[in-house]
Specification:
single chain, 204 residues, alpha/beta, Rossmann fold, six-stranded parallel sheet, 44% helix, globular, binds flavin mononucleotide
Length: 204
Amino acid sequence: MAAKIFIPFYSRTGTIEALARAVAEGAEAEGAEVRLRRARELIGHDIMSSVPGWKESAEAMNARYPAPTAEDAVWADGIVFGTPTRFGSVSSELKAYIDGLGGLWVKGALNGKAGAAFTGSATPHGGNESTIISMFNPMAHLGLIIVPTGFADGAMFKGAGTPYGPSVVSGNPPSGPTPEELDVARFQGRRIAKVAGALRALNG
Ligand SMILES: Cc1cc2nc3c(=O)[nH]c(=O)nc-3n(C[C@H](O)[C@H](O)[C@H](O)COP(=O)(O)O)c2cc1C
């Protein structure tokens, strides 16, 4: 049976959305069934309206993706979290979704599933690695088996991504992932699908 991969992400201007879609493509290339879900806004309309394009971009993505639910996490064999870097860490929007998983944590419902993370920052030294590693903390609490990218594919040797997870250096305003960054994300999608399928067979 195909592995089930759940990709809950937050993206405000489309960079992380593009990376999420590349992770999904990689997982689907391994035969996985994929759910892409976008965490919803937490900040007020005043802030969302303060930068041209933010509100419109968020609304367009909300039309494309349902919000992530706890049931999605239970359904999945592997969960890949995606977030823009916010001051060197995870966005509050994605974190709010994760913080809603306490009911599953108490039951150990996610123990033994595969987990991974990806991110983007505006600048090369803006905190991509620290953001991904910060997401490893709740993943460990939830009992996920964390799957880093490592240097386990040729895509990792072309100056894109991190050994912790795929990443984008988007610039400001964001100009989207490069082909090399998308290749790392596709590789991670293939890798998580393989590991998630193997773990499901192991867990029974
Ligand atoms: C409140 C806020 C905090 C941010 N913090 C950082 C940061 O610490 N380092 C960085 O390089 N970029 C930072 N950024 C830029 C975003 O992480 C970056 O543009 C990202 O690629 C946007 O992804 P998106 O297009 O999917 O929304 C920040 C942006 C916002 C709005």
